[in-house]
Specification:
4 domains, 6 strands
């Protein structure tokens, strides 16, 4: 060891510098081989986690659209039912969401009973629109304690089922607007949308739900994205684009970007990476430099991205 050190000291200054530099490079290479796999695996784990978040967001969005489509289908398949006897599958087919079905079954398991349609209306979370659809189909059986006394009555007077009186003042379907009426698409609630011919409670909820995801509509034809024929609605709807809720492109987070229906995971990552490398985005046309965005993407996103905080 002393001999090697003695030989090293006998080197010229330039040779010693070269030797030290070579040793430093070897040290850096060794450290790189040791830590680089860990760094790469850490980045890969983070990317996998973000991909999983994106996948879950996408699946949740698809599930909402599928649930809305199922609700539209269910509307055409209403049938008589007894809320005191219907099982979970029957209640689901009638359009009740799973959590509401569980609450209803729990209420019945504790001895609760629906004696009139008005009792069913008090079910937590039940909308007026769905109640209007269901109340005419309710067939509430006479309780057993009343059945024995009813047996002593003439058969033609025994009330075997409670059938709603259609002359009673139960909630009526919304009266439709006359021709020439214009409804503001970015402000109307479900009740107002139902007054447009051709729009029922399920389509109205679908329109409002997608509006909330987008932040507002910039055109009526966007309704085609949720499988609604927009052509007959041009005579009834108008769009105020000042009502659109925009994303602040220089401050939004990854999850914030991905919550928008027009942005997917790779586009959101590309936006963040561009901001990291080049600083704040000063013009939306800068996004055309990114291969993740097509001209069609930029056109429709231009209605939702903002350079300035609002």
């Amino acid at each position: 060891m002393r001999g090697h050190l003695h030989d090293f000291l006998l080197f010229g200054r330039r040779d010693r510098r070269k030797t030290l530099l070579l040793l430093l490079l070897l040290l850096l290479v060794g450290l790189g081989f040791h830590y680089l796999p860990r760094l790469l695996s850490g980045n890969e784990a983070e990317e996998q986690q973000l991909m999983e978040v994106a996948r879950q967001e996408h699946e949740a969005f698809e599930a909402r659209l599928q649930a809305q489509a199922e609700a539209d289908r269910v509307q055409e398949e209403l049938f008589p039912f007894d809320p005191n006897r219907a099982d979970s599958l029957t209640l689901h087919r009638l359009g009740l969401p799973p959590w509401m079905v569980r609450n209803l079954l729990r209420y019945r398991s504790k001895g609760g009973r629906f004696r009139r349609p008005d009792d069913f209306r008090k079910l937590y979370g039940l909308t007026d629109e769905l109640y209007v659809c269901l109340w005419l189909y309710m067939r509430i059986a006479v309780p057993s304690e009343q059945a024995s006394s009813a047996a002593e009555l003439p058969s033609d007077t025994v009330p075997m089922l409670y059938r709603p009186d259609t002359t009673a003042r139960y909630p009526a379907r919304p009266e439709k607007y006359p021709a020439g009426t214009l409804v503001q698409l970015n402000e109307a609630d479900t009740a107002e949308l139902q007054r447009i011919p051709g729009i029922g409670p399920f389509l109205a909820r679908r329109i409002v739900s997608y509006r909330q995801q987008l932040g507002g509509y910039y055109g009526i034809d966007q309704l085609r994205e949720i499988d609604i024929d927009s052509r007959p609605l041009h005579d009834w709807l108008q769009v105020d684009t000042t009502r659109i809720r925009r994303l602040y492109i220089n401050r939004e987070t990854l999850n914030g970007f991905m919550r928008h229906p027009y942005l997917h995971y790779h586009q959101a990552r590309a936006l963040l990476e561009y901001r990291r490398r080049h600083g704040p985005i000063r013009h939306l046309q800068e996004l055309s430099l990114l291969e993740e965005f097509t001209p069609a993407d930029l056109e429709r996103l231009s209605h939702y991205l903002s350079l300035d905080a609002e």
